Amino acid sequence: MASPDILDLPEKVRENLEKAGWVSSNSILMSSDHELRKLGNLTKEECELVRTRAAQSVLASGFISVTEAVCSLKEKWQRLSVGCSKLDRFLRGGVGVQGITEIAGESGSGKTQLCLQMALTVQYPVTYGGLSGGAVYICTEDAFPSRRLQELFCCFPPTFSEAQTNMNFGDSIFIEHIGDVESLKQCLLVRLPQLLTQRKVKLVVVDSIAGLFRSDYDPGDAVNRAKDLQVVGGQLHKLAEQFHLAVICVNQVTNVAGKKNNETQQQPVAALGLAWANMVTTRLQLCRTAHTVPDPHQPDHTVCVRTLQVVFAPNLPSDSCHFIVTKAGVFGIN
């Protein structure tokens, strides 16, 4: 049954939209013109009419109070805590629920550690920086680090009493192993939407996006790779908007020549080029440094100091901070 959003359209157009599964303004606006014309069997003029009517139906009509506007924006731009107050302050509250957040970095820089930690914090109550939902963790390179996750279950310090919430973190983390790009597309387009309608999931992690797209294509197949990246990125954006969840994609880095202090040096940049960068909302980059500090949880051990850099983001300046990875989790340091 079509929602009132598309009832104010010619009968033939409305029937074509219903057959294709577009029964709301949001689903229409999140589809491309190519999809509307091919799957909806619409002309160019009909596509323009459908988009105009859909846009008009989602625009708020009449006046609203400042309080209503603030509440609406707070919900839309909600943040997910990374589990450390220092890092949360640096990120102005954590990771956003709109768009795609990319965490790039060399091997061993702490990307997976940070994602595992957020698979726990997403289950926190909203008042404690969580989203009161579960997490989907899609692995494309290595097996899921279940041993490390079990260690975090025991050692990671929650900011609220687990006894008060009767929470079992492991029951709300769903794992999928993907071996090729086609399987990833099938997962994102079919299986994941089904899970999201059945369970309250508020975080999707793809670890990593580069693992598949760097290995499944020949060097001369850049066009098809770019198209598939757009499909994957577009679907992740669509799911983030539709289900109001955070999306994190882990990426590898590649070294390119760049100028630093008037010298040509190799600098790490996120992989997959502009085709993927244009799909990313926020890019964070991690790297290891040569410095070490005492482990606050094991004083007789030292841990490597790492850097978290904001490469670009809609709400953050380009800046960096330092953090460490310990047995108990990821923590920012001064």
TrEMBL record:
Domain of life: Eukaryota
Start and end residues of each RecA family profile domain: 76-253
InterPro entries, per database record: DNA_recomb/repair_RecA-like, P-loop_NTPase, Rad51_C, RecA_ATP-bd, XRCC3-like_C
Keyword DNA repair applies: yes
GO terms under cellular component: Rad51C-XRCC3 complex; replication fork
UniProt keyword annotations, A-Z: ATP-binding, DNA damage, DNA repair, Nucleotide-binding, Nucleus
GO biological process, one term: telomere maintenance via recombination
CDD domains in the record: XRCC3 (cd19491)
Protein name stated in the entry: RecA family profile 1 domain-containing protein
Organism: Coptotermes formosanus
